[in-house]
Design goal:
6-stranded mixed β-sheet, Molybdenum Cofactor Biosythetic Enzyme, Chain A
């Protein structure tokens, strides 16, 4: 079956995806969190559900703890973080998330940096955007700028989200077992 056929089957097989959004910032508030708001708006416009939203300080142990909590929850299938993926001394999201991943999706970070190159040039190498799986939960760590979030969500995550969850959950294999 081609990837397009998988994508179409996933579109028809799955209900809306339940997502958690974590903004990693020492300074943002719910009123100033434009990137978090953009993620919520884009998910809602695509018919998905927001199961959790929070702003966390850029403290790797707090990020790690919340992500583990959400991964253990039955209410969340994907966790989308924004912020803390650069190389500044306080940027700890990559370390917090990458160490939790059981199966990495290296293509996300690679493609994100490639697409970012078109917008910001060589500065795209500063991003440590990453993605992967922990158990039955997808994790995406994006930079915190609204331009970066828009790029990641519209060009990479949303076009494949149902397909990713479909594959992660093994829906196709479950259907084959029933035959």
């Amino acid at each position: 079956m081609s990837s397009n056929q998988h994508r179409l089957e996933a579109e028809h097989a799955l209900r809306p995806i339940r997502a958690a959004i974590l903004t990693i910032s020492d300074t943002r508030t719910p009123e100033t969190d434009k990137s978090g708001a953009m993620i919520r708006d884009l998910l809602a416009a695509s018919g998905h559900e927001i199961a959790h939203y929070a702003i966390l300080p850029d403290e790797p142990h707090e990020i790690r703890g919340r992500v583990l909590e959400l991964c253990d929850s039955e209410d969340v299938e994907v966790i989308l973080t924004n912020g803390g993926t650069g190389i500044a001394p306080r940027d700890g999201t990559f370390e917090a998330i990458d160490g939790l991943l059981e199966r990495r999706l290296p293509g996300f970070g690679e493609l994100f940096r490639m697409l970012s190159w078109e917008q910001v040039g060589a500065a795209s190498m500063l991003s440590r955007a990453t993605a992967g799986l922990r158990g039955r939960t997808l994790l995406f760590a994006m930079p915190g700028s609204t331009n970066a979030v828009e790029l990641a969500m519209t060009r990479l995550i949303l076009p494949e989200l149902k397909h990713l969850v479909y594959e992660m959950q093994g829906v196709r294999e479950k259907r084959a077992d029933k035959r």
